[in-house]
Amino acid sequence: MIFDTHAHYDDDAFDEDRERLLSDMTNHGIETIVNIGASLQSCQQTMALLNSYDFIYGAIGVHPSDTDELTEEGMAWLQEQLSHPKVLAVGEIGLDYHYDDTDKDVQKKWFRAQIEMARDAKLPMVIHSRDAMADTMEIMKECKAEEVGGVIHCFSYGAQTAKTYVDMGFYIGVGGVLTFQNGKKLKQVVAELPLEAIVLETDAPYLSPEPNRGKRNSSLNLPYVVAEIAKIKDISEQEVIEITNQNARKLYRM
Ligand code: NI
């Protein structure tokens, strides 16, 4: 069955039908979902979700674009959540230079602090990196991120960078972008990497794959991503589902 390594079911986009949608997931072949925190509030909501649904787990951390709100108190609260047995990772954390509404030095400070937190807790990390390839790699090396590993979510760089991350003990998160007309770079990454390095993710409610691009995304759309990986690698969809599920379990140490 399918393992969705990255979703945001706390998002307002699911307020109207969250319970109906989630309670039906396993009937549609979705076995496990990791809900990913992005702000302190979404981390609180993530804790509520993982306490309400057997098949939902969580990652706790603050997204680079939300680091303005972080304080030492906030960090202490995050750290406390990490001892919950269903919190599997620290994330999503990283750098995002696409929008310039959050100061780069603020982003870097809390990226470093959250890598430290992951290393102290011996938990893998979920990395968000957009238009910030060099700085992300530099900080991850400086802070010895490879000691705990994790996943580079919504991977948007080239195959060479992907291979470097795989060598550092990171998985590569692949989602809806793979099905886009302009997804050539990611197709190349998937073609060049072994399937053992790839995990499935939605980033729901964002990044819905074709043919549902632009609509609200959910884990129910992952079969479109599976089909695209199977096509690129010339293997069966079942193999893609099974191997990426095993990869996700290794990533999150389940
Ligand atoms: Ni995300």
* Cα-atom radius of gyration: 17 Å
Overall mean pLDDT stands at 97
Strand order of the largest sheet: 1-2-3-4-5-6-7-8
What's the structural domain tally?
Answer: 1
* Low-pLDDT runs: none
Put simply, the count of helices is 9
Intertermini distance = 15 Å
CATH class: Alpha Beta
- Residues in β-strands, percent: 15-25%
Task: Give an overview in words.
The chain contains nine helices and eight strands. The longest helix has 18 residues. An eight-stranded parallel β-sheet has the order 1-2-3-4-5-6-7-8. By secondary structure, the protein is α/β, with parallel strands linked by helices. Bound molecules: nickel (II) ion. The site of nickel (II) ion (NI) has 5 residues, from loops. Nickel (II) ion binds next to loops.
Which SSEs are present, and which pair or pack?
Elements: E1 2-7, H1 18-23, E2 30-36, H2 40-52, E3 56-60, H3 72-81, E4 87-96, H4 104-121, E5 125-130, H5 133-142, E6 150-152, H6 159-167, E7 170-174, H7 184-192, E8 198-200, H8 222-233, H9 237-251
Parallel strand pairs: 1-2, 2-3, 3-4, 4-5, 5-6, 6-7, 7-8
Helix pairs in contact: 8-9
The structure holds nickel (II) ion.
Residues 6, 8, 36, 92, 203 line the site of nickel (II) ion.
